[in-house]
Amino acid sequence: MAFLEFTDIDKSFEDNNVVSNFNLKVEKGEFIVLLGPSGCGKTTLLRMIAGLEKIDKGKIILENSLLNDLLPSKRQIAMVFQSYALYPHMNVFKNISFGLTNDKLNKNEIKDKVLETAKILKIEELLDRKPKELSGGQRQRVAIGRAITRNPKLFLFDEPLSNLDAALRSEMRVEISKLHKKLKSNIIYVTHDQIEAMTLADKIVIMNKGNIEQFGSPDDIYNNPKNIFVAEFIGNPKMNIIKIDKKDIKDKDTFNLFNKSIKFENSNFENGFYVGIRPEDISLENKSEIAVEVNIELIENLGSEKIIFTYFNSTEIRIKSSKNIKDKKITIYLPKNKLYLFDNNKNRLKT
Ligand code: ADP
Ligand code: MG
After folding, report:
1. Which of 20, 116, 189, 227 has the largest count of CB atoms under 10 Å?
2. pLDDT in tens, 198-210
3. pLDDT of residue 69
4. Which CATH homologous superfamily contains domain 4-233?
C-alpha cells in the first residue's frame, strides 16, 4: 500500500463538480506538487485532505488509516496557507509553539522544539517579534515553523509563496527544497506556478477542471506531455502549436509543415492534427531539414536570452535564443525529432 492513496474522490459544491474521479498514489517521502490553473480544485483537494472540507465520495488513506471520518486534529497533518494565518497578538515564539501546548509537553521541551525549528528556518532572532514587525518572507517562515513543530506525517502547502515578490519567492523556493531534503517528510504543495512545480517536485500532478491530466516526474511531464493542455502548461514561453489541416496531409504518413514535406513512417494521418515544438527547440544555427524563412515581429530581451516572435501564415511562432539578432528576416530550423504530434482531440500521437 502506498503512503497516501486517493481512490475515486468526488466533490461538488451544490451542482458545481469541483473534483471528480481523482485517483492518486503517493510514496513515502515524496514531494508532490499539484499544478493547475486557478479554480481547478487544488485548494479544495488540500482542504479535503486536512479535513476542513467533507469528501462526497471516495477514500483517502494515509499510512493505512482512512482519513475520511477522522477529525482534522487527529489526522497528523499540518497545513501552511498562502495568507500565513498567524495570530497577530502573539509573538513568533508563541505562534510557532501554539499547537504544542495541547501536546503534554513541558515548558522546556516546547522551548527546545521551537528553538530547533527556528534554527532550521533561520528566524532565531525574531522570536520576540509580533507578525506585523516581520516581512512577508519572515511571516511565511513562521507559518512553516508552526507546521514543522507539529511533526506531522504530511505537510500541505497552499500557494505559500504567491504573496511574496519575485526575488524572495525564488529564495524561499530553495529554502523549501532544502527543508524537504532535511526533513524527508511528505509534502503536498499547491501552486499555479510552473517554475515552482518543476524545481520542487519529485512528481507533479497536472490538474484541469478537477481532473488529473498527467502525473509524473518533472522531466517526464516536460519531455512526454500526454496532451496539448499539459504541453502548453509546462514550459515558458509555451510550446508552439501548429494546426495541420486535412489539406496539408499529403499521404497517410506525410504532411506539409511550412511548405516542407515531412514524413513519419508508419503513421496514419487521415484527419487533421497538431504539431508542437518548444520555443527552445527551434534553432537559428543548427541546420535541419525543416528550414523556414520568417519575418521578425518582435524581440523580447530577457538579458541572458531573447524571445523572438514571428508569424508563419497566421500562426504565431515563439523562439527562444541567446543569439543577438540584427536582421529583420531570419531562417529558423525545426529538428524533426523535437516535433510533438497531437491528434484532433489534442492527445499525443505515438510517433
Ligand atoms: P484552486 O485552488 O485550484 O484555485 P478551488 O479549489 O479554490 O480552486 O476552487 C475550485 C472551484 O470550487 C471554484 O469554482 C470555486 O469557486 C469553487 N469553490 C471552492 N470553495 C467553495 C465553497 N466553499 N463553496 C462553493 N464553491 C466553492
Ligand atoms: Mg487555491
Report:
1. 189
2. 999 999 999 999 9
3. 87
4. P-loop containing nucleotide triphosphate hydrolases (3.40.50.300)
